């Protein structure tokens, strides 16, 4: 299936696979999609190592990088600045979070605990206005050969756009509403990713069915990918029907064997239904869709404090989440009750862990099959489609 | 386009048009879709007159009726019962609503005021457990010849299913999540309408992109219509791609010239964007998507009381809404600030009022065109689709 997106980045299939696990990125790209590394948690040195490894695996096949860089870098995050921010967190909030740890019996971290830092989008939000860090990440990115650079939140900073232009790398931006898309088009991005409310992580309120055609209508020659609700061939076919040049899938890779999420998280996701996610600010201070859990319920309960804005909320909860993840990974039942992860409503379709390559193949072949079935609707005298034949 | 839905009800196009305006119903059916009358606000005598008029206009063409009947009718709504319910409404709530009327200067109703009772889904919720009323509505419905009877909320009562069977009329039910669909299938409905969160009125939290394939997967031979987010040909094509046998459109008719909504409401809808709706319990006591307005903001403000459950909330706010509608219809700016209506996120696509027949034609032709364009994706050597060409 050739579209404006496959032409732009040079892939076989109109499917981008966003994930924080380098192995998933490699497998998506090997299978003919565009693997996009969610690189929000790396230091420049770590990013350099990961991109090097990905390129070694891919032998010239295209891949992308998604960076969380702010539109304006206004300061350098000194220790004093971080300490000053921490002081703005009310004592009531610290007490509430520590009270939760006590109530659920979540032990403090000990020296041998291995932390899954790539899951820490919350923590990355603490430091991502650090100018040296951002410059370092951009230096590393453009010292490699990504086929796409994406800006995860907000308009890409001019430095990112200029350097991408100079290196001939197209820039993508995620948008959640029409006005975001207008701003990104004015900034000159090459690809818009329209993320519907059903998507996981930071997301808006407009659904993919409405957002995708709305963004495509104003995008002119700039291709649009639909994100949110894309986990099967039929959903990719629907994205194309809506005017997208392809799909941007994020959550579905959490059901892959290669994804880095712990077994504790994956087993909760496999058991969840499509109604089991919720948009909450309790983790990052910004509205993000995630699996409903006791953590969310506790923050919703009467007497719980209101969540804090960025970057205070992630500062407040980061250590608690490290403790929860470690304890849940050990099989602690109370920690498993609290455990959650950023995931979209497609979580209800997860049945078992599968190799990433198989997920890509199922989506692409399912899409092609559905498009062929749909052609019979506009070719008279054919059999009757529309019945459920999953 | 022939699907399991067009076969079931005998229409040309896989499109149901739900509306409370008899003229819209007639025009949808004349144009080859299935007009479905939202008959939640009629007395049996009124419903009889409306169905008679519709049948006279349609000369045998199929149409449907959507009734708001409870699964269990447990009592007869005597005056004493209604008075008893009213007494359960806290004084604080009456004061809040009356305070809003004072703050915005909304005058009481006077004798000559003409009320748009068909918009009063809130009021109907007060009395719809009245056994005589429900029996009367079913008597009238089955004395006519609808091609479909739909149950707007919850599982259709056994009486409705039995009488529909006896008259050979298929029964449809709206569902907002997987468990609803399982219950409706067990009850034996003939058609499922999967309503995504982007839809107007009472709606759930799962988006059409996720809900439609999920419901279609378990529906077996029962056809599924996608509702929520269907206002254009591309969106209908997406619904078909998701496994639906067609689309169920509700909000789009609010942009028709035939719809009964006042000019005050229609002009607000034409000006609204896709981010301007909100799910709120302030009108009916149940979560319903509607246009954001000062009414919603006032109930969200600090100090506002929590909304009440059904049927208390509609009892509380009905008269206030009659006053708002009358004053907004007169052009009162403060009333227009409060004015709202049940509508889905597709409201952002409304550009001008159009004849219903033209809306149907645009959706159907747009869908056929998009499906033909999509065939080029699976036929090698064709031009590159996927660019935005609205």
Automatic annotation (TrEMBL), chains A, B:
Coiled coil ranges (UniProt) are none
Database matches in InterPro entries: Aldolase_TIM, NMO
Q: Does the keyword Oxidoreductase apply?
A: yes
At the top level, the lineage of the source is Bacteria
User: Keyword Transport on this protein?
Assistant: no
Tell me which Gene3D superfamilies the record gives: Aldolase class I (3.20.20.70)
- Write one Gene Ontology MF term: nitronate monooxygenase activity
Report keywords, A-Z.
Answer: Flavoprotein, FMN, Monooxygenase, Oxidoreductase
Q: What is the protein's given name?
A: Nitronate monooxygenase
Q: What is the lineage of its organism?
A: Bacteria, Bacillati, Actinomycetota, Actinomycetes, Micrococcales
